[in-house]
Amino acid sequence: MSLKNGTYRTAAGSEMRVSGLRSGVSAVNFDWVEEGACVDCQPNVYDDDGYLVWDCDDCGGGKAKLEPFMPMPEGDHAL
Questions:
Q1: Residue 31 domain-assigned (yes or no)
Q2: Dihedral over alpha carbons 72, 50, 22, 71 (to 10 degrees)
Q3: How many separate domains does the chain show?
Q4: pLDDT tens for residues 7-60?
Q5: CA gap 79, 75 in Å, rounded
Q6: By residue range, what is the domain housing residue 24?
Q7: What is the pTM of this model?
Q8: Is residue 48 in a domain?
Q9: Is residue 62 part of a domain?
């Protein structure tokens, strides 16, 4: 499954932004602590099932489901 352009988050709060003509560009803000990853983990792009994947020779790595995320527009804040 190829993710469409947009912002996605895992339940633990890591974020991925997908962009580009064919959605071929991705940028990851990976939260090692919240994802339960060790400091040697390296985030990868997402897999075919829409999961953020991280690899590690020490702990074995992991993955977390990416869900669409719509940030609040500037100036809009929950009370």
A1: yes
A2: 0
A3: 1
A4: 999 999 999 999 998 888 889 999 989 999 998 999 987 887 899 999 999 999
A5: 12
A6: 6-66
A7: 0.81
A8: yes
A9: yes
